[in-house]
Amino acid sequence: MAGTNRAYESNCGIMMDVTNAQNNRLRLKRLGINAQNEYLVFMRKDCPVCTSEGFEALSRIKISKGEQTIVASLIVWDDELQLSHDQLSLSDSAIEALKAKEGDLLTLNHLNALNSMSDVRKKIYGHRLNQTEFDRIIKDVVNRNLSNIQLSAFLASCTGDALDRDEVIALTKSMINVGFKLDWGKENVFDKHCIGGLPGNRTTPLVVAIVAAAGLVIPKTSSRAITSPAGTADTMEVMTNVNLTTEEMKKVVLKEGGCLAWGGSVQLSPADDILIRVEKALDIDSEGQMIASVLSKKAAAGSTAVVIDIPVGPTAKIRSQKTAEQLSDKMVSVGKEIGLKVEVVITDGTQPVGRGIGPALEARDVLSVLRNEENAPVDLRERAIVLAGKLLEMAGKVDLGWGSKIASEILQKGIAYKKFVAICKAQGYFKEPEQAPFKYPVTAHEAGKVMEIDNRKLAKLAKLAGAPGAMTAGVLLYTPVGSTVKAGDLLYEIHAESQGELSYALSYHETQTDIITLN
Amino acid sequence: MAGTNRAYESNCGIMMDVTNAQNNRLRLKRLGINAQNEYLVFMRKDCPVCTSEGFEALSRIKISKGEQTIVASLIVWDDELQLSHDQLSLSDSAIEALKAKEGDLLTLNHLNALNSMSDVRKKIYGHRLNQTEFDRIIKDVVNRNLSNIQLSAFLASCTGDALDRDEVIALTKSMINVGFKLDWGKENVFDKHCIGGLPGNRTTPLVVAIVAAAGLVIPKTSSRAITSPAGTADTMEVMTNVNLTTEEMKKVVLKEGGCLAWGGSVQLSPADDILIRVEKALDIDSEGQMIASVLSKKAAAGSTAVVIDIPVGPTAKIRSQKTAEQLSDKMVSVGKEIGLKVEVVITDGTQPVGRGIGPALEARDVLSVLRNEENAPVDLRERAIVLAGKLLEMAGKVDLGWGSKIASEILQKGIAYKKFVAICKAQGYFKEPEQAPFKYPVTAHEAGKVMEIDNRKLAKLAKLAGAPGAMTAGVLLYTPVGSTVKAGDLLYEIHAESQGELSYALSYHETQTDIITLN
């Protein structure tokens, strides 16, 4: 209370502070903090609002500026360096949500109990939730009224088989309702999705090219890399423009039947974007949550039929055939309820796909398949054909069982390649992937058979070499698992755009001995 | 990667940065951040370690300085104002744990999967955990290897009746094992505990005085206020010294049989201190967790027998007689397994206890009961007698059913008062509570009966008036629920130590009309 005394006995300017503090008001100071998932508020432990309201670390605080109100979690600042007595700071997203600016007076209050937290607690205690209750929770998720701690408790309570079929349907509908929904003005709109990506698994450009060539409508949006050396959007960006507005996407799809755009500008499932971060931090697979996540995104994207690739393998997201089959059944069944035709293809998830790691190197893999080049990666080609074939069957373009054959022919005859280039041009231009100017070959010290490849280390190498920021950077793998090599044979090449970045990757590489294990 | 290029092509000093970054090293800058429960690390989004490791918001990062290693959650700093390219910042507790100082080079790495998180996931999926698994989790809780998100998922998975009796016993033992255990060198050591405190419920000093006077050993430690206007330690501090080391406590207890010290300096249940914050944020009562929390603290305090007060009421922590009885059964049963004799007293939790709110005002309530003053609060006296009586029965000092009568006599004859003063003197001194110099009386505008008292608002008023920092500040209530008042009768007084603080409380008071509801 020393501060209060001083303020009160002092001059008129500080009197103002007292009045502000009585009304729980502090001034905003911007500090450039990005907490992504959650709004954070930073306050001094000894500021009058903290003291009188009994706020402490983790307190959920309602912060208002005029009509705008948000909820933020408190982090306490002990130091006088950052904030003065009458100041607070907020994470940048919170400042944006409040439409506030430096120096604004913000009002702080205790957050009253949220109704959605009663729903969350109901689930924690093992009861079933109905549509209204899921709606309330998901609405508060999107408005960021729930803290990461609260989201975590919700996700934990939904884990395993805690959600029955009706609950998964309700959750999926809630997630669709809070997002933006695209409308293509077509009766049948196709899509594809892969659960738990594999390194190098760039089937998407191939599948889109093949089925669009066959006349299907497939407005595909993809993500950029978050922690990997390349996402499908990064790979496509090597060859064309991927930053399309919804209107631009519509024009491309109207002309060519398909597009290959970056999905980041269209917020299709804002609830999922928030939940997925917490789920990742917990490393739990809430099956119901995952189904709701995938299917709500597809429905919001305006799709009516989707083929889902589930790679199964010991290091893949889905580890057993049985789990994959159960998941498949549920996805088909939930899809039906929300008007989405779902078919699942269970694939081999034991190995990386293709040869390149990094945007341009993966683009070269894609093009070599489209161009039927001799050294095109067989695994990538095969996977794309199966998925495209399934979509052709779903569309009734071919008889059941003939999808792969027709897809293979479309590829073989160069029709898919033509369509791919046409899509790229409709998006702005098509250009060939460039080659990195700096390369470092890694050869086998001795003869042997490739027993194991450490994908995580290869990915780190690709990222240190500059991928995905440096588009041509990455790693080109010459010897997949099972290859036989002689001493001196090329195992892989590190590609970089500058000598600096190459050295950067190499100094990490020098400390690693077991990236490729020979026997 | 622009940063890397620039660094590499530049002078020798910046070359150093590249080498540091390759080895995932950044320099510490202290910013005075207090996140209490969790270690936080602040890094620039574009710093070379973030980029190459793919760290993102919420990433769990292992940070080392020499032998010291901690795990922290990442918050990303977009702004260049706070951190340069080769710097990071940490919350203060993390800096302390690393024994680091400004400018130190710290090494950052991905956190490998924690074994304890496998155990947590096992519980999330609804399986039973054994002693080894609880030990692993609680050890990581104490070492702060688990983030708040992970702690939340653990707590959610333990909620309701998710823990069976054996699991509660195992959890309790795990929590005892990670803390410090006190040894009083006595066969029987008594204690008391109240579940979910009521405002003004200062029975502790009375119970200790009564049973110590009867010859029991009761080395009581209490907490200070966190969000309330006074804790038992704050109230005792008005009259004596409460900052005792364990050695000093031992001396007092050896001399007088009991003590009334602040428990803050003895970390009896470090795991509980961390879990309880997250539980509070979720507003869930994990019954098993609560039992483990209370009993582990008592066992760690070296107690062998404890009486537990469970107030039941609509705004109390426990809301029904039935829940209280079930909880009581489990506490007795778990207590037995860890060698702790437990008895439970279920009490009325519908109203605040006593008349004063604030350290000195509550101390005056305590003294008026000890001195058998005419206007001493009857409710406070009655509660203390029941609890003390139960302890006397547990100790075998009196026959079953006679405890309250004997406790009342000890109080009536002034023996408890004498013992209380002796304990205070053994702790350093005894002094009378002072009176606040500034008082503001609030009177009834009309006649009526007191129907309702808003405890939360009274507490806020007491805190704005300066409690507990200003010891004599607070609110003195004249009319409990049920009182009949005439117009002009005194309802309550606001006490403050300075005119400034009084005005501060009054300007809040002016905006409130319904602190006391008359009909």
What structural class results from the helix and strand content of chain A? alpha/beta
Q: What is the helical fraction of chain A, as a range of percent?
A: 40-55%
The CATH superfamily of the largest domain in chain A turns out to be Nucleoside phosphorylase/phosphoribosyltransferase catalytic domain
Instruction: State the end-to-end CA separation of chain A.
Output: 72 Å
- Overall number of structural domains of chain A: 4
Oligomer: homodimer
At CATH level 2, the architecture of the largest domain in chain A is 3-Layer(aba) Sandwich
- State the shape of chain A: globular
Strand order of the largest sheet of chain A: 1-6-3-5-4-7
> Biggest interface and its residues per chain?
A-B, 81 and 80 residues
Uncertain segments of chain A of ≥5 residues (pLDDT<50)? Answer: 1-16
Radius of gyration of chain A: 27 Å
Mean pLDDT of chain A: 88
Query: Based on DSSP secondary structure assignment, what is the total number of beta strands of chain A?
Result: 19
